[in-house]
Design goal:
The complex is a heterodimer of chains A (about 800) and B (about 50). Chain A has about 800 residues and is an alpha+beta fold. In chain A, strands 3, 4, 5, 8, 9, 10, 11, 12 and 13 form a nine-stranded mixed sheet that branches. A three-stranded antiparallel sheet of chain A has the order 14-18-17. In chain A, strands 1-2 form a two-stranded antiparallel sheet. The chains are: A alpha+beta (about 800), B mainly alpha (about 50).
């Protein structure tokens, strides 16, 4: 028995608990029976773990299906459950083999496609993409709990062989060629000879795509000139980026020298003077290239500078200014270089990656709490906002030929331009702070490159992109066993297939309508031009689109089109915050060449905001809060809040107060009276109005001295007591009612219970109003109610 | 000893194959659920 320890620990061969745990003694040879027993124990654990994973995964998917009232295909379920039986059999087979009851099975029978390097023409199934999932993080195998060194007694199966988890190779060119250039018979799958009308294999009539199904994919996006990143020298940056300051500085030197000219004589200067003269010459040389400074002036300047030799202090000052100028120029040059490096286009070119923004199809999740857009916004609205306002958005990068996740995943846009703010390799949970502002990490171009160039299998990363320019619209496809790209899974029902095709084409139509070229993204994140889709779901594609093509291609709508769409968006009042609505208008104004300072929101926009935000009056300008007509309309969305934020004069307006009470009849919890100015609270008329509207718990206690007001309060209390509403006992039965009652004095409560129960009319009024009951006050000042009839 | 090693490797290969199929079936189930969800959304949109 010479099992190597390293092999055992790695799980390569039989893992034996005793050998891992025990001391040197344990490394002596073992009896075959002991090994067999331990192998069986471990295989049982692995089979058990597999079955457990199956069960858990099935339960999880069943739960999700139940949440959305969806049905799991019974056949899939059976097939999944059938795997458990196969796992049991595998364990049994192992037992039979090691005990010699069965001859070693043929190698072919046991060889797994994953025990050797992946060679098949097709990649394994794509990552799990569920628009109903809250978070999509790519597919994690349900049994991948074995990343650490495997413990044979852990109860988990050993590590999945490396080949299994390695990113599969991208679709081989032959397959792409096949998809691009050949058609397959829908019936038998045989290749169709070009222009043939019938299949040579099965005779099936070949349906040619109808002309209307072949999609024209002209981009309405604008042509661009891509800036090449070039780090300028200090001198170049001074000339190109600080030309104005450079000119001013040159003029300053000229003026300074002219001023000093008269003070300088000849023949009085030594070696130091000569050095200073040389330095002055050098400075003049540096600035003589400025076109605005004529050659003659430069010569004169050189002469002037020579004369400066007795004024080293002045020279020092100028030298200092020049140094500062060049330091500033250098900094600007570096920042400019970095900002070009951080553009979407340059990042795509450097890292051969796409930067995409995917849309969630689930309406409930598309605009979650991180979004500044109302859930009323449709997918079309979202696209319009993106194309017109080019807001700061979250995106993800994917490298063609890799298995990398996308948020949402099924549809989205590929960006051709924009400025990357930062990147995080996972979900960064960024939140908007306005249309053109999103929080999140700020990253250097180096850090962006490190993460974007990652070709490994992973979930989605998050990049915040400012001023995004859209290149095209993509829709994901799957790859079937024949290597076809499929837009939907074909079913036996023609109607279902028709619906699914329509669903697929709906997004293509939407893309075309918005001027975005429709594109197809494969599971391994390659991008192709979309051509057509057959009734069976097979997608035909055109040329492959590379990241470089995207980076150098058309992107972003022209300003006129952006303005047109933006104006439509503004009318829909889709922004959750009123300041974002204003920002949208400012963006559109600037697009059409107007000053944003002239932008104002209309009353209709504020009313729409009040409607969507149950008021939100604290964000309203003062002139609107003082506008009676406007506030009368706005109050319908939140009467109490409208009164609270109304202008001081409006707060004292009886018509306005009555209107507020008419809207707030049902609620007494939100006291309007308590929000009134103090002088109004003392007004008997106002107090009576409040009492009539059941808003009397906060009435000023001094008003209890007014017989008219007090009588109204007592009547309201009697109305509240109404035993017919709650007394469920039989005749002769009694119930107690606590009568505690208070009014207000400033912010304090004043107990009015005594005044209420000692009121001679109180019991009399109760008896008269509710003749089926008898009312008395007991020794604890409670109301004793006896049912009489 | 070789017999045990081979038997264990075969068992492992079989289990890996089963895991791959398990993953494929689960993926298929999720894709079908997504299609159903899309159908529901599509119908909702049509009815609007």
């Amino acid at each position: 028995m010479n099992l190597e320890k390293s092999k055992i620990e790695s799980g390569e061969i039989l893992p034996v608990k005793a050998e891992k745990e025990a001391s040197e003694e344990a490394q002596v040879e073992k009896e075959p029976k002991v090994i067999e027993r331990e192998m069986m124990e471990n295989s049982k654990k692995e089979v058990g773990s597999f079955k457990n994973e199956s069960k858990t995964s099935l339960e999880e998917v069943q739960k999700k299906a139940a949440e959305d009232s969806l049905q799991i295909d019974e056949e899939d379920k059976k097939e999944l459950e059938g795997l458990n039986q196969e796992a049991e059999s595998a364990g049994e087979e192992l037992g039979a083999e090691i005990s010699g009851k069965k001859e070693q099975a043929s190698k072919e029978e046991f060889s797994s496609p994953f025990s050797k390097k992946y060679e098949g023409p097709l990649p394994p199934p794509p990552p799990l993409i569920s628009p109903t999932s809250k978070k999509f993080e790519g597919w994690t195998p349900p049994i991948s709990k074995t990343n650490k060194e495997w413990d044979p007694n852990s109860g988990f199966p050993p590590p999945i062989p490396k080949e299994y988890i390695t990113t599969p190779p991208p679709l081989p060119n032959e397959v792409i060629k096949k998809v691009e250039k050949t058609k397959l018979c829908a019936k038998c799958g045989a290749e169709i000879i070009s222009n043939a009308k019938f299949c040579t294999e099965c005779g099936n009539k070949i349906e040619m795509p109808k002309p209307k199904e072949i999609i024209k994919k002209e981009s309405a996006m604008k042509e661009r000139t891509i800036q090449n990143p070039k780090l300028l020298s200090k001198k170049e940056a001074s000339k190109k980026l600080l030309a104005e300051e450079r000119k001013k500085l040159a003029e300053e030197i000229l003026t300074e020298r002219k001023k000093n000219r008269g003070e300088i004589g000849d023949g009085r200067y030594g070696v130091l003077a000569e050095m200073q003269s040389n330095e002055a010459n050098a400075m003049a040389e540096r600035f003589s290239s400025n076109k605005k400074l004529s050659e003659q002036n430069a010569q004169e300047e050189r002469g002037n500078l020579k004369q400066l030799i007795d004024n080293s202090e002045g020279l020092h000052e100028i030298r200092k200014k020049i140094e500062e100028h060049y330091t500033k120029a250098d900094e600007i040059a570096k920042n400019k270089f970095e900002s070009i490096q951080k553009t979407v286009e340059q990042t795509m070119i450097r890292n051969n990656a796409f930067i995409v923004h995917a849309f969630l199809l689930d309406e409930r999740l598309r605009h979650n709490e991180n979004s500044n857009i109302s859930q009323r916004a449709t997918l079309e609205d979202d696209i319009d906002i993106l194309l017109s306002l080019e807001p700061s958005i979250s995106t993800s990068s994917v490298v063609p030929g890799s298995r990398q996740g996308l948020w949402g995943g099924r549809i989205g846009v590929v960006l051709g331009g924009g400025d990357i703010k930062g990147i995080v390799q996972t979900d960064n949970g960024t939140v908007t702070g306005g249309i053109k502002m999103r929080d999140g990490k700020i990253s250097s171009s180096k850090e962006i490159d490190e993460k974007v160039s990652d070709k490994g299998e992973r979930g989605y990363n998050e990049l915040v992109v400012n001023n995004p320019e859209v290149f095209g619209f993509f829709q994901n496809v799957q790859i079937d066993k024949s290597g076809n790209m499929i837009g939907f899974e074909k079913t036996s029902s023609e109607q279902d297939n028709k619906n699914r095709k329509e669903d697929f084409l709906r997004y293509i139509d939407l893309a075309i309508q918005k001027g975005m070229p429709p594109l197809i993204m494969t599971p391994d994140r390659r991008l192709f031009e979309f051509s057509s889709i057959s009734n069976e779901g097979i997608v035909s594609v055109g040329a492959e689109i590379t990241p470089e093509k995207v980076a150098k291609g058309k992107a972003g709508l022209p300003n006129e089109k952006r303005t047109e769409i933006g104006e439509q968006i503004i009318t829909k009042n889709l922004f959750r915050k009123i300041k974002d609505q204003k920002e949208a208008k400012e963006i559109v104004a600037e697009l059409s060449g107007k000053e944003k300072s002239g932008v104002e929101l209309s009353q209709e926009e504020y009313l729409a905001y009040a409607r969507d935000n149950q008021g939100g009056f604290h964000n309203f300008p003062k002139h609107l809060l003082e506008n009676k007509n406007f506030m009368l309309k706005a109050a319908q969305f939140n009467p109490v809040s409208a009164y609270e934020y109304a202008g001081e004069i409006l707060k004292k307006d009886m018509e306005f107060i009555k209107h507020i009470y008419s809207l707030e009849k049902k609620s007494v919890a939100n006291s309007i009276y308590s929000l009134m100015p103090d002088e109004l609270k003392k007004n008997e008329g106002v107090a009576s109005l409040a009492i009539e509207n059941n808003d009397f718990e906060n009435i000023d206690s001094t008003l209890a001295d007014s017989p008219a007001v007090w009588e109204k309060i007592v009547d309201k209390k009697i109305e509240q007591i109404n035993p017919n509403k709650w007394f469920s006992g039989n005749i002769g039965e009694q119930r107690y009612l606590d009568l505690y009652f208070s009014l207000k004095k400033g912010f304090s409560s004043v107990d009015m219970t005594e005044k209420l129960i000692t009121n001679p009319n109180f019991i009399q009024k109760l008896d008269n109003k509710y003749p089926d009951y008898k009312f008395e006050i007991d020794e604890y000042k409670r109301l004793l109610i006896t049912k009489m009839a | 000893m070789e017999k045990y090693k081979q038997a264990w490797e075969k068992f492992q290969n079989k289990m890996n194959d089963l895991r791959k199929r398990q993953k494929e079936i689960l993926l298929r189930i999720y894709n079908k659920l997504d299609q159903q969800k899309i159908e529901i959304i599509r119908k909702k949109l049509q009815s609007k």
